[in-house]
Amino acid sequence: MRTRDIKQQLWLNEKEKLTLKINAKKVGLNESAYLRSLIMGYKPKEQPSDKFYEDMKQLRGISININQIARKANSLGIVDAPFYRKTYQKLNEFMQQIKKKYIDIEKED
């Protein structure tokens, strides 16, 4: 069943239609979803480039390596486990900041 049962017609000129189409495509939404997000006070962000996803893949690999090193070193008892945990946590926070900056939508105030 549809969650939206009200149809709203909108009249645009050619320039407005083209702008709507381009902006919706930039953020990876269809035109309806793009307009609904704007109406609800959100400002969708443009989809990040492929470089962003390559960087995130590298960061994940680094974090996995850090975790593996920390586990092995901790089991052998020759490393400062709190230091590695803290480093691993900082890396995860950095990844979240990148995600928020490039992907997540935010509500305008």
Structural notes for this entry:
This protein is mainly α. The chain has 2 domains: about 15-45; about 50-105. The protein has 4 helices and 2 strands, in the order H-H-E-H-H-E. It has helices spanning about 15-25, 30-40, 50-75, 80-100, and strands at about 40-45, 105. The chain has a two-stranded antiparallel sheet with strand order 1-2. Helix 1 (about 15-25) packs across helix 2 (about 30-40) and helix 3 (about 50-75) packs antiparallel against helix 4 (about 80-100).
Q: Helical residue percent?
A: 55-70%
Which consecutive residue ranges, at least 5 long each, have pLDDT under 50? none
Secondary-structure element series: HHEHHE
**Structural class, please?**
mainly alpha
Count of distinct strands:
2
Measured on Cα atoms, how large is the radius of gyration? 22 Å
Distance between the termini: 32 Å
Strand content: under 5%
Mean pLDDT, nearest integer?
A: 85
Number of domains: 2
Strand arrangement, major sheet: 1-2
Number of helices: 4
Give the SSE map.
Blueprint: H1 14-27, H2 31-39, E1 42-43, H3 50-76, H4 81-102, E2 106-107
Antiparallel strand pairs: 1-2
Q: What key attributes describe this structure?
A:
two-stranded antiparallel ribbon, 109 residues
Give me a quick take on this structure.
The protein has 109 residues and is mainly alpha-helical.
